[in-house]
Amino acid sequence: MQLRTKSQSWKIAGLLSIAAASLAPVAHAGYDENVGPESDSSMSSNSSMAMDSSMSSQMTSVSAPRLTTMMLGGRTRYVDPQMKAVLMSLMELHPKPIEKLTPAQARKQPGPPDAVKRTLIKQGRSTAPEAVGSVMDTTVPGPAGRIPVRVYKPRGMTSDNLPVLVYFHGGGFVIASVQAYDSSCRALANAAKCMVVSVGYRYAPEHRLPAAHEDSYAATQWVMNNASKWGGDQNRVAVGGESAGGNLATTMCMMARDRGGKMPIYQMLVYPYVDTSFASANAPSAIQNAKVIPLNRAMLTWFSRYALPSARFGRNHLASPLFGNVRGLPAATVVQAEVDPLRSQGTAYIAKLRRAGIPVRAKLYRGVTHEFFGMGAVIDQSKDAVNFAAQGLTGAFNR
Q1: Fewest CB atoms within 10 Å of the CB: 39, 69, 243, 351?
Q2: H helices then E strands: how many in the chain?
Q3: Annotated catalytic residue, options 216, 304, 340, 382
Q4: Position with higher pLDDT, 60 vs 38
């Protein structure tokens, strides 16, 4: 196995650095990082916790006793060692900076799933995916032709009336795929004991926004009216996704409200990309995490450039639900990563939902980066995050 050189170690150390260890607020219009006390719809009203005023404790956060102390850039930083191992593996695959590539080139680069696989190999462990009951690739009708979907059923469940999670993958609307987020869907199907329908919406820039939203809405409404054909319960359908998929999940609820469609019963949002405007690169966490991997500040501008039909559309409620009307949306679970340029906008969205009276369960995971959610094979905090999300889903499914 190739050994990492000292220079490579210093390179990854620099990329892992958090630009502001204290997470001190940075002025940016439109962002309110004070989300207030925890509001957990699964808890009684008198069990809410008062939070410290610092950003790092504005929501329930997982204490990570295995966090390691590293001197990076002259400051003490905290990075989960399991997360660090994955990032080391990613760097050993020599990915090129996405912000310097075309979308076609970027789609061919090694990514987080490849890093997880490499980490498992280095640890002498199996790279086989988590076992589920069944996986089926099929299509559903869409506005521009058939939409590919992948249907997962949980391990050990024989029911023909399974609750359903319609899931949307990340990738900034430009890269990634249903396959790239396969591990998340498998984990969620087993943890929430539900059917997961992962939607393969159209990419930008070949199909700029809101093409992805129109595909996703068509698929969601089809599932809500036809899930019984696959053994699903059409009256227990939630939506969820990671990053850009979190955007799609919450906007599916907005579109259902505005178009008179069927409303999902719950939304699961994992580090949601709810502000795709060019201004998102100036948010506090984008500045604080400008050079981290696998998502950095420059990539936010790159995604905006290729996904948006115009700069003005970045303020549209579909492209950026942070600026939209959230009245009437269902309760939500929101998962966030500390070392993530999207943390500020996710926190602002939590606050927006709560101000509208929408119950939100939120948890911030310390010392982990964007894309950690689907890494349960190698990161313990990822397993906890999946279970936290599953608890919100099962609570909604069982009401």
Answers
A1: 69
A2: 11, 11
A3: 340
A4: 60
Structure tokens at 114: 């490849």
Please tell me the number of Cα atoms within 13 Å of 129 on its side-chain side: 21
Task: Give the residue extent of every domain in the chain.
Answer: 134-397
Q: Which has more confidence, 62 or 113?
A: 113
pLDDT tier at 158, thresholds 50, 70, 90: confident
For residue 239, what pLDDT is reported? 99
Active site residue 243: yes
Q: Residues 28, 169, 213, 370: which is the catalytic one?
A: 370
pLDDT digits (tens, 9 = 90+) for 88-105: 999 999 999 999 999 999
Asked if 274 contacts 346 with a C-beta cutoff of 8 angstroms, the reply is yes
In tens, the pLDDT along 175-195 reads 999 999 999 999 999 999 999
Strand partners of residue 153 = 134
317 has catalytic annotation: no
CATH tag, 134-397: 3.40.50.1820
Residues 6+ apart with CB under 8 A from 209: 173, 276, 307, 308, 309, 313, 316, 318, 319
Half-sphere exposure of 45 (CA within 13 A, CB side): 0
Once rounded to an integer, what is the mean pLDDT over residues 266-292? Answer: 96
Tokens linked to 45: 């009203």
**Helix (H) or strand (E) segment spanning residue 196:** strand 195-199
- Residue 78: band (very low, low, confident or very high) from pLDDT cuts 50, 70, 90: confident
Q: In whole angstroms, what is the distance from residue 70 CA to residue 198 CA?
A: 38
Residue from 216, 243, 277, 285 carrying the catalytic annotation: 243
For residue 201, what are the contacts with CB-CB under 8 A and spacing of at least 6? Answer: 147, 168, 211, 212, 215, 216, 219, 248
The verdict on whether 340 is a catalytic residue reads yes
- Tokens 């990161």, located at residue: 379
